Amino acid sequence: MKVRAKRDGEKDDEDDESDNAKEGDEKARTVELCWTKGAGVVRKDENGQQYLEVLSFDPSAVRLDRLNSGRAPLLNSHSQDALDSVLGVVCSAYVDPAKKEGRATVKFSRSPGVDGILDDVRDKIISSTSVGCTVHNWEDITQRGDPMPVHLINDWTPLELSLVTALADMNSAVRKNKEYK
User: Fold this and answer.
1) How far apart (Å, rounded) are the C-alpha atoms in residues 110 and 5?
2) DSSP H or E stretch at residue 179
3) Alpha-carbon span 162 to 8, nearest angstrom
């Protein structure tokens, strides 16, 4: 994910291809972001065997109640150890099955230390996001010739969104205005 909120007096540049941001509301401290683009992610099972995890974007496969509750956190790198890891809250979220994307509006906290992170998000220094989820069900969709097993996650709950330094899904990012139109 990449994140961006417009600063007062800042002009829009619709043609800047390097800007993957969707403007937010600076006073409300909100930013719109893409939290997944559905890239397969290599995981390990309980026996240490690698498999490729692929998320289903069928609306019946994704349980969005938690992200849309107004209580799901925006975290610092999936850290759930302390309250100061909470950067904000997810205001709303949805999946777009046609684009295989998960999108959300998040609101940043006014807690000490978060202003600098929000500034870095606005300045495109911090631009990567990730989703933490619970898997309820999956099916093996491995085909002959696949280098490892492939698990389609066909029932899952996004629990939290995170700003991260290293992406599992290289395509998740804050999006441009024209991508939301």
Assistant:
1) 15
2) helix 177-180
3) 26
Positive/negative CA dihedral, 66, 72, 78, 80: negative
Q: Considering only CA atoms, which of 8, 29, 53, 24 is closest in space to residue 149?
A: 53
Distance separating alpha carbons of residues 106 and 86, to the nearest angstrom:
12
Cα(158)–Cα(163) distance, rounded to whole angstroms?
15
Residue located via tokens 């220094």: 125
Cβ pair 158, 132 in contact under 8 A: yes
Closest CA to 154 of 144, 168, 140, 143: 140
Query: Where are the domains positioned within the chain?
Result: 22-38+65-133+159-180
Cα 20 to its chain centre, rounded Å, is 13
pLDDT tens for the 181 residues of the chain, in order:
334 333 333 333 333 333 333 556 778 899 999 999 888 999 999 999 999 999 999 999 999 999 999 999 999 999 999 998 999 999 999 999 999 999 999 999 999 899 999 999 988 889 899 999 999 999 999 999 999 999 999 999 999 999 998 766 555 544 433 333 3
